[in-house]
């Protein structure tokens, strides 16, 4: 016998042997009492295979209870995380207001944004989980030699890895195209039409239906001093009215962006673009150029005031009273000068340079 010969059995041999180790360190068969199994043991227990006689048995119900407890803790933590989300987190860190939509399209845009990110996060967690699991479960173990079994030409897996990305991309394309079509749709008779003209580095706003305009926008410099905000161009919009924006640029490519509207539209010289939106919440909202357009791009700012119909009508009358009638056209540059005058000034300067060089 191994213990009589002074040879210790290996751990693997002890696991396979039905014999047990005695208190004196020797190995021998279990000692039954009155031909009955030892108290707290079974003759054929199972724990990842066949259990040796004499080993204590852990009730299976305890494993189930522990597993249930772990799931309960995980679900509780997940619920607390969701409940504790701030307004910004619930919006996917998008600008705007969680309690009330700023326009008739912000809810649609926010749902598309958040839904896309949730889908990507789920896919990312699954992919990274599989990568980490494979790295741990199939790592090289002590005693392993050679290369592991290689997997080739697994048609079901290849079909899954091909079809799943196609389905995901097509689904994302469908929802994006559906919402983009709705957002870009134009009505036949909008309530208000605004002609916005971008220029380096300010804005001109024309109220087409009222045939008035805001005072010509002058480039602003945000120095942080008191009153700097009031110097920005201001655009007035009536609440709960369909507004069509007709956009043009006088010089380079710009982009019209009211941040809380969650939408921006590029503006090109010689090519008009347009979109419609219905403001649904009164307030003052910040606007800016969203396309790098030169040295003072960051100072190309404006404000949008969404007001009641009465206040909007009152402002239109104020513009008429101060003489801001008609429309500011595309024949003006950033300094509100006629292009022909600017060309004449350039010719005069060139002649002066030539004369000085003689």
UniProtKB/TrEMBL annotation:
InterPro entries hit by this protein: CcO_II (IPR045187), CcO_II-like_C (IPR002429), Copper_CuA (IPR001505), Cupredoxin (IPR008972), Cyt_c_oxidase_su2 (IPR014222), Cyt_c_oxidase_su2_TM_sf (IPR036257)
Cellular localization per UniProt: Membrane
UniProt entry tagged with the keyword Iron-sulfur: no
Membrane association type: Multi-pass membrane protein
Pfam families assigned to the protein according to its UniProt record, in alphabetical order: COX2 (PF00116)
Annotated Basic residues bias: 1-18
Keyword tags: Copper, Electron transport, Membrane, Metal-binding, Oxidoreductase, Respiratory chain, Translocase, Transmembrane, Transmembrane helix, Transport
Enzyme class: translocase
Domain Cytochrome oxidase subunit II copper A binding, first and last residues per copy: 189-318
GO molecular function: copper ion binding; cytochrome-c oxidase activity; oxidoreductase activity
Top-rank taxon: Bacteria
GO biological process: ATP synthesis coupled electron transport
SUPFAM superfamilies (alphabetical): Cupredoxins, Cytochrome c oxidase subunit II-like, transmembrane region
Family, per entry: Belongs to the cytochrome c oxidase subunit 2 family.
Protein name, UniProt field: cytochrome-c oxidase
Species the sequence originates in: Brachybacterium nesterenkovii
């Amino acid at each position: 016998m191994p213990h009589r010969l002074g040879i210790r059995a290996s751990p693997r041999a002890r696991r396979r042997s039905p014999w047990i180790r005695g208190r004196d360190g020797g190995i021998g068969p279990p000692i039954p009492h009155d031909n009955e199994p030892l108290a707290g043991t079974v003759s054929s227990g199972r724990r990842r295979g066949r259990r040796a006689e004499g080993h204590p048995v852990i009730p299976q119900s305890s494993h189930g209870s522990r597993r249930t407890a772990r799931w309960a803790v995980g679900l509780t933590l997940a619920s607390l995380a969701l409940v504790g989300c701030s307004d910004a987190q619930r919006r996917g860190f998008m600008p705007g207001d969680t309690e009330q939509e700023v326009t008739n399209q912000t809810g649609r845009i926010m749902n598309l944004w958040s839904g896309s990110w949730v889908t990507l996060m789920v896919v990312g967690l699954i992919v990274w989980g599989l990568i980490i699991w494979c790295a741990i479960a199939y790592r090289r173990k002590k005693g392993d030699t050679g290369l592991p079994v290689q997997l080739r030409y697994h048609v079901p897996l290849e079909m899954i890895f091909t079809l799943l990305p196609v389905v995901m991309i097509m689904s994302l394309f469908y929802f994006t195209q559906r919402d983009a079509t709705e957002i870009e749709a134009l009505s036949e008779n909008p309530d208000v039409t605004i002609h916005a003209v971008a220029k380096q580095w300010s804005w001109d706003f024309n109220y087409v239906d009222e045939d008035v305009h805001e005072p010509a926008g002058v480039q602003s410099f945000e120095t942080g001093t008191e009153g700097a905000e009031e110097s920005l161009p201001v655009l007035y919009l009536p609440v709960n009215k369909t507004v069509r924006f007709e956009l043009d640029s006088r010089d380079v490519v710009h982009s019209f962006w009211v941040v809380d509207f969650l939408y921006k539209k590029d503006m090109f010289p010689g090519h008009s673009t347009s979109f419609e939106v219905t403001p649904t919440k009164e307030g003052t909202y910040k606007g800016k150029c969203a396309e790098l357009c030169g040295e003072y791009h960051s100072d190309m700012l404006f404000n949008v005031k969404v007001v009641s119909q009465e206040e909007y009508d009152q402002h239109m009358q104020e513009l008429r009273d101060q003489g801001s009638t008609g429309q500011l056209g595309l024949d003006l540059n950033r300094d509100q000068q006629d292009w022909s005058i600017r060309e004449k000034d350039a010719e005069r300067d060139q002649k002066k340079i030539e004369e000085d060089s003689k």
